[in-house]
Each structure stands twice: as C-alpha cells, then as structure tokens.
C-alpha cells in the first residue's frame, strides 16, 4: 500500500481513537504521537530510514490535526450550534493564549456581549453567563464533576488538595473535615488569632501614619499571617518583618499562575510534571508541620485547622500528604481572596467619599468593633463588601465543572452533550445588567434591605461559589473582612498617595486563578474623634 496513504489513514484512525479514549498518561500520549509512523517505518524497511520516518511523521501529524480541526468546526460537533470565536472552537490553546495577560475575565465579558449568554470558548468548552445555570451546574455534585484541569495543581505523585479533587465521592470525604473545622461553632476558636493580627495591622499602620504605604501589600501580609496562624502553625511573620524576604507570596502567585495556564489543557499535565515544582519548598514545610501537629494530637493548646483535622473520627482516613496539601491550600485559597476583597474595598471607598463617610457613621454608631455579632448587623458594611465582591470578585473566572459523563443535560435552556466543560464566569455574571442595574458603578446602597431603586437579582451573585464544592471558608472570610475593613475605616483617614493615578488599580489587576494586584499607595492618618 502507498506509504502516503498509510500515513493519512493512520492519522485518521488516531483521531477516532483519541476522540473516544481522550488519552492522558505520558506513555499513551507519546504512543499517539509517534507509534504509527514508527511502526510504518519498521514494517516498510526503507533504504533511507530517517527521511522516510520524517515524511511519515509529518503526514501523520498534519492529517491528525486537520481531521481534528475539521471535526471541531463541522456541524457534526455537538457544540456546533453555540457561537464563539473561531480559534476557540479549533483548539484549547486559544484559552491559554487568552489567559496569558491575566485579563481573560474582561475578554470573556466582551465575548458574552457579542455572542450572548452562552459562548463556545473551547472545542469542548462553554461559558454560560446566566443565573439560571448556577443550580444545575453547581448544586448536584454526583453528576457534575470538577473540571479535571484543576489536577494540574497536584504535584506528581501527590494526593492533591481538596480544591483539586474531581471525584465527587472523594471530595465529599475530604470536605467533611473542612466543614467541621469551619463550622460556626468552630469559628470562635480562631477569634484570638484574628484579633491579634488585626491589632498588629493597626499598630503597624499607626507607626506609618503620614507616610505613603502600599495598603494592598499590607493587606496581603495581614491575610497571609492570619492564614499562617490558622493553617500553618503561625510560621509566617510578614507584618512583623514588613517584608517577604523569602519571596513566598510571589512564589505562590507564580506557581499557581503557571498551573492555571496549563489547566486549560489537561493532557499537558503529563509533561509539565517533569518540570521542577516551585511549590516544593512550601510543601516540605507543610509536611514537617503535619508531623509535628500529629505528635501533639488533639490536646494541642492552639485550636487551629490541625486541631480540627486531628479530631476527626477514626473512620475518616486522611493521608499525611492530603493534610499537608490542605494546609497549604488554606493559605492559597484563604489569603489572596480576602486580601483582594479588602484592598478593592479600600480602593472603592477612597474613590467614593460619600460611601466612606456613610460607612464610618455606621461603624461609629456600632461602637465596639471587636464584637463579631455587632459587626454582622452593620448593614452598610456588608453592603460595601458585597458591592466590592460584585465589581471585583476574588475569583473573576468563576468555577469550572464537567457535565455528566453520560446523557445530555439542559443548562439554562441550552442542551449540552456529556463531558462538556462548563464555566460559570463570575466577572461577566456579576456585571450583567439583566441582574444589576448600573453594573459598572459602585453603589453599596443596592444591597440594603428594602432598596427599590435598582435592578437587583441576588441569585446571580455567588462570590463564594455555590453547592457542595463552594468555599469552605466563607464564614471565616466574612468575619475577617468585616473586622479588618471596619478597623481600617474607623481608625484612619485614608487618601490615595499624591501623584498616584487611581485608574491604575483596575488596570494592574491580573487573574491567573489567584488575583495578582498592583500596589495601592495611600496615606493614612489617625482620625481625630
Ligand atoms: C473573601 C474571601 C474568599 C472568597 C471570595 C472565596 C471564594 C472561593 C471560591 C470561589 C471557591 C471555589 C469553589 C468551587 O470550586 O466551587 C473557594 C474554595 C475554597 N475556599 Fe474560599 N474564598 C474566600 C476565603 C477563604 C478562606 C478565608 C478560606 C480558608 C479558611 C477558604 C477556603 C477555601 C477552601 C478550602 C476551598 C475549597 C472548597 C472545596 O473544594 O470543597 N476560602 N473559595
């Protein structure tokens, strides 16, 4: 048989096999790439082996790619009825390219404006910007899986943190201990560590009154220190040192950012795991901590995350690796999110003196800010935090799930085939004028009970996500952000530093799974009461 024809045929067969089996392992992928041309060369025994092999390989790859692209663009593809950019429909690499500059959330909003509430953003991916999709996609964990792309965050050979667990039953197991550790009854255990860190932040800023401080950096250090106490046995001390000499934070941001890029293409995991893991030193610290904490058992004096981990019933098996990974994810998931909310709230309040004064008046009237219950009743404070999370969600790209493995499913009226990767994108959803009027404006009033002046549909607002995989730390995060923001606003007069252009703040925000923020230089002065 003609060797050209054989190469084309094997390319086509390979497409069919890949389409059916979706190979993931390194060996399987290498076989897909090279096996057919190698076999063809071995069987043909040509006089000039290398040129023969090179030609067979070239024709094979070109056929495999062309056939894949043709199918993805064809009306036979089950997502063909949904509109989206041409390159996105051809390859998931479009997603990677799109995510490089950290501005994908803004681009996705524009795409929804152009194409409507459902956009095909990958060969097998859709973004659905609709409140009606939330329950279907997020509430039923048994049928909907977490997108396997999260697994790029799992180090080779490791168990992975709770956030990366895709199997619903495994997730349920892992989640139990978190739910106990962060149940309302457990929150009081973290109170003294949170109060101590808020006092430390206040004292550090007191000392710097009248000078320029980067409040964004200080809030990052504050939340890292608190999460360090909560999950890492108090091993960080960023605020005391007013620095991050080991570049711990930037290491986390870079490592997660790189994993996020490749998460768009799950098969790349087989190869990126050959590279050194930048989180390795942190994981070692985490493993060491697990050893120490296990030795202390549940009698440890400090009631932190491990205290609750150690108190789990004996039938709840959790490996040491799982514990170490979960401690680390608490730092990742719990620090940048809260610090982003706090820094954004300061930015919006300083930009809006009327809202700032209104909040201050409420807090002055509330009096004792160490009273958690009292703070929870401050409606304007919660309205400011909600409005901040609406305009600047800590996870702008939202959450990603995979539709049930068999059978079609209807999401917000759209029929989706099995194993479709479905994004619920927070940034476009929370700024959708169908749900929130004046969607780009900071108007905390819209959250006040009884307000009628605004189109306001809270079912579209899920900054902590929703359902069984939703944020485990939501209540703790609410306590932390309320207490820290209340302290800052009641204690200090805050102004942007002279010469700082506030327009830069939003421009500097980049999202790669966790938000990286620019600096927010402000001048603080103790308020004269
Ligand atoms: C304002 C601050 C915060 C926001 C906006 C936020 C938001 C989120 C979101 C959107 C998710 C993804 C949920 C999903 O995949 O469906 C998540 C997961 C998670 N968050 Fe938070 N978070 C915040 C603070 C915290 C804090 C302080 C902690 C720790 C104490 C924490 C611990 C977690 C954990 C453990 C998960 C994984 C949950 C799971 O897989 O079951 N978060 N968070």
Automatic annotation (TrEMBL):
<keyword id="KW-0503">Monooxygenase</keyword>
<feature type="transmembrane region" description="Helical">
    <location>
        <begin position="28"/>
        <end position="45"/>
    </location>
</feature>
<dbReference type="InterPro" id="IPR036396">
    <property type="entry name" value="Cyt_P450_sf"/>
</dbReference>
<keyword id="KW-0479">Metal-binding</keyword>
<dbReference type="GO" id="GO:0020037">
    <property type="term" value="F:heme binding"/>
</dbReference>
<dbReference type="Pfam" id="PF00067">
    <property type="entry name" value="p450"/>
</dbReference>
<dbReference type="InterPro" id="IPR002401">
    <property type="entry name" value="Cyt_P450_E_grp-I"/>
</dbReference>
<keyword id="KW-1133">Transmembrane helix</keyword>
<dbReference type="InterPro" id="IPR001128">
    <property type="entry name" value="Cyt_P450"/>
</dbReference>
<keyword id="KW-0812">Transmembrane</keyword>
<comment type="pathway">
    <text>Secondary metabolite biosynthesis.</text>
</comment>
<keyword id="KW-0349">Heme</keyword>
<dbReference type="GO" id="GO:0016705">
    <property type="term" value="F:oxidoreductase activity, acting on paired donors, with incorporation or reduction of molecular oxygen"/>
</dbReference>
<keyword id="KW-0472">Membrane</keyword>
<dbReference type="InterPro" id="IPR050121">
    <property type="entry name" value="Cytochrome_P450_monoxygenase"/>
</dbReference>
<keyword id="KW-0408">Iron</keyword>
<dbReference type="InterPro" id="IPR017972">
    <property type="entry name" value="Cyt_P450_CS"/>
</dbReference>
<protein>
    <submittedName>
        <fullName>Cytochrome P450</fullName>
    </submittedName>
</protein>
<feature type="binding site" description="axial binding residue">
    <location>
        <position position="471"/>
    </location>
    <ligand>
        <name>heme</name>
    </ligand>
</feature>
<keyword id="KW-0560">Oxidoreductase</keyword>
<comment type="similarity">
    <text>Belongs to the cytochrome P450 family.</text>
</comment>
<dbReference type="GO" id="GO:0004497">
    <property type="term" value="F:monooxygenase activity"/>
</dbReference>
<dbReference type="GO" id="GO:0005506">
    <property type="term" value="F:iron ion binding"/>
</dbReference>
């Amino acid at each position: 048989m003609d060797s050209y024809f054989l190469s084309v045929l094997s390319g086509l067969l390979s497409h069919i096999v890949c389409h059916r089996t979706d190979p993931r392992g390194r060996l399987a992928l290498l076989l897909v790439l090279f096996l057919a041309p190698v076999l063809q060369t071995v069987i043909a025994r040509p006089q000039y082996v290398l040129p023969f092999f090179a030609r067979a390989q070239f024709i094979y790859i070109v056929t495999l790619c062309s056939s894949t692209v043709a199918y993805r663009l064809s009306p036979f593809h089950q997502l063909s009825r949904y509109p989206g950019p041409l390159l996105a429909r051809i390859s998931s690499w479009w997603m990677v390219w799109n995510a490089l500059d950290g501005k994908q959330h803004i681009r996705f909003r524009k795409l929804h404006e152009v194409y409507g509430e459902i956009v095909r953003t990958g060969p097998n991916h859709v973004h659905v910007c609709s409140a009606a999709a939330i329950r279907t996609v997020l509430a039923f964990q048994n049928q909907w899986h977490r997108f396997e792309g999260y697994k790029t965050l799992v180090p080779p050979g490791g168990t992975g943190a709770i956030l990366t667990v895709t199997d619903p039953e495994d997730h349920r197991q892992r989640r139990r201990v978190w739910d106990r550790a962060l149940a309302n009854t457990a929150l009081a255990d973290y109170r003294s560590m949170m109060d101590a860190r808020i006092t430390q932040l206040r004292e550090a800023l007191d000392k710097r009154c009248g000078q320029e401080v980067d409040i964004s950096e200080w809030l990052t250090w504050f939340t890292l220190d608190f999460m360090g106490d909560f999950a890492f046995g108090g091993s960080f001390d960023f605020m005391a040192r007013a620095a991050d000499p080991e570049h711990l934070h930037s290491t986390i941001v870079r490592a997660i950012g790189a994993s996020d890029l490749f998460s768009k293409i799950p098969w790349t995991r087989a190869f990126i795991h050959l590279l050194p893991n930048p989180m390795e030193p942190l994981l070692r610290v985490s493993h060491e901590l697990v050893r120490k904490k296990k030795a202390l058992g549940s009698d440890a004096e400090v009631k932190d995350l491990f205290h609750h981990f150690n108190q789990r019933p004996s039938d709840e098996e959790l490996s040491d690796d799982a514990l170490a990974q979960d401690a680390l994810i608490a730092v990742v998931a719990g620090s940048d999110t809260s610090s982003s909310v706090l820094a954004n709230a300061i930015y919006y309040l300083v930009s809006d003196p009327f809202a700032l004064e209104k909040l201050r008046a409420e807090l002055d009237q509330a009096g004792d800010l160490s009273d958690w219950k009292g703070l929870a009743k401050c409606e304007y404070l919660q309205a400011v935090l909600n409005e901040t999370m609406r305009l600047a969600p800590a996870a702008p790209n939202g959450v990603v799930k995979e539709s049930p493995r068999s059978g079609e499913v209807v999401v917000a009226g759209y029929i989706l085939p099995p194993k479709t990767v479905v994004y619920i994108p927070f940034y476009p959803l929370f700024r959708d004028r169908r749900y929130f009027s004046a969607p780009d404006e900071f108007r905390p009033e819209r959250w006040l009970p009884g307000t009628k002046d605004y189109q306001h549909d809270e079912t579209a607002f899920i900054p902590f996500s929703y359902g069984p995989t939703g944020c485990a730390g939501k209540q703790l995060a609410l306590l932390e952000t309320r207490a820290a923001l209340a302290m800052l606003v009641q204690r200090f007069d805050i102004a942007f530093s002279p010469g700082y252009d506030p327009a830069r703040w939003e421009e500097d925000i980049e999202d790669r799974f966790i938000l990286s923020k620019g600096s927010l230089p402000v001048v603080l002065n103790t308020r004269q009461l």
